[in-house]
C-alpha cells in the first residue's frame, strides 16, 4: 500500500472520529466468511458502518483529534480490529453486537468511545446499551422541571374550584338566614 493510500485512509478515519462522537472497536477472530457476511448485512440494515482497519491507522487518526485515547492504545488496539460507526444512534452498535453474540460468540467488543468517555472490554456491553443519549437526558430533565409547575397549576385550579364552592355555600347560608 502506498503512502498516499495510507494517508487517505487515516484522513478518512480522522474525519469520521471528528464528525461522529461515538465509535465501537470490535474483534471478530475466527469468523467464517459466511458469518462475517451475516454481520455486515446486519450492520447495513441498521445503518451501521463496519470497517476492518489496521490498528496503526486507528492510532494515527485518534492522535490527530481532541481527547485522550491512549488507554485504547495499550489495551484495545492489538490483534484484528474493526470499527463500527452509526451517525445518529450511539446504542445501535452495542445492541447489534449483543444480538449477534446470541448466535455467534466470536464477535467481541474491545472498546468504545461515547462522547470521549472510554469503555474498555467486553463486560461494558450492557453498560453501553443502558447508556442514555443526550436527547433522552434532556427530555428527562425537561420532564422533571415541568412536573413541579404542573403540580402548582393543578393545585391552584383545584383550589379555585373549592374556594368557589365554599363561597357559594356561605352565600347561600346568609341568604337563608
TrEMBL record:
InterPro entries: Ribosomal_uL10, Ribosomal_uL10-like_sf, Ribosomal_uL10_bac, Ribosomal_uL10_bac_type, Ribosomal_uL10_CS_bac
A GO molecular-function descriptor: large ribosomal subunit rRNA binding
PROSITE patterns: RIBOSOMAL_L10
Keywords: Ribonucleoprotein, Ribosomal protein, RNA-binding, rRNA-binding
Database matches in CDD domains: Ribosomal_L10 (cd05797)
Domain of life: Bacteria
Quaternary data: Part of the ribosomal stalk of the 50S ribosomal subunit. The N-terminus interacts with L11 and the large rRNA to form the base of the stalk. The C-terminus forms an elongated spine to which L12 dimers bind in a sequential fashion forming a multimeric L10(L12)X complex.
Official protein name in the record: Large ribosomal subunit protein uL10
